[in-house]
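Pasting as-is:
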Amino acid sequence: MTPQAPISFHRAEYGGEAISMMRCRWCGRGLDGEFFRANGDMICAVCAERARAALPRNDRNVFARAAGAGVLTALAASLVYLMLVRLMSFDRYGFVMAFGAIGVGYAIGYAMRQSARGAGGRRYQWTAAVLTYVAITVVFSAMTLAVADLPFWAYPALALAPVADLFLGHFQLGATEIFFASIGIRWAWGLLRAHPLKVTGPERLVAVEEPGKSVA
């Protein structure tokens, strides 16, 4: 009895011609001649085009719009944060500062993400981190230093107070302010991560050769 050729589940043969049976990982279409990769998945040209169209646009104008939204949100969030801190009693001071910092960071990160239509990355994260730090430390410094007569335009300079406290004999106070700011920064940073999807290609589809046989 003549031994039969091994069965291949990767291709079918019609009239001696090998036709690939590999399929798109997303839609299930057969891959004909070429394919694309989306984060390692082999996909067809149709899915690749749709994926690229869905990727958020990330240029200078988008970043400027997101940064502007972040600045406005930082101003609003810091005012709300200041009112909450003033209204709460001293025994709940730490609780309000911690959860208020989370709210400030989340608000800034969310506003920038929405304004950028989902775009993200390092420049967005660093911008949000700076805005969150300033918004939180200005409120904290305004409360501890009692600067009621300070002009409005000078308030951003209070963001330097925590760093100065570290070297001017108020280490615990400065470290506490920076700690609360880091809580908010962590939330803003996470909301503005870069879009993970990456589409590459096209690549040629190479026929799979069965053991003991050669493709002409």
